[in-house]
Amino acid sequence: GTPNASPSVAKTPVQTPGLIRRASLNSASRKVASTPDSVPRPRRLRVSGVPEIGRTSPSMQDRLAKVLEHADSALKTPKNGCSQDDVLPSISQAIEDLEAADPSTRMKHADALSDLYHKRAVIYTHLGDYDNSIRDSEAAQAALSWGRNVIN
Questions:
Q1: Spans of biased composition, class Polar residues (predicted)?
Q2: Residue 95 to residue 89: CA distance in whole angstroms
């Protein structure tokens, strides 16, 4: 793997989903305001639908934060600790749930999805399952670029 793949994962802010959400809403509304009226503005819907999003997403946000935290601690333990086996099902379940979610939820959690794929790839590597590791590494990149393409 690349040496700078894991530090970016470690810096993922887990404790403050509220702050992250607030920051992204502010930037989204700023972008909307600066768009000329002639340009169709799909984001306007997203901004006005915020209370609705807020009601459904904290649970998903909290769950993802917990799974990512669990994965981080599993990756910090020595290989023979085998807690990585324990965390695999919860990572896989979170990935499945996100992949099955509606596009706006997937987009909102694109970074988390990418992190989950990346962490699972690292665990697969530790377990010697290189095919799955490569597949998840590619999926991590795809999730990240997909999220960026939709947002920008």
A1: 1-15
A2: 10
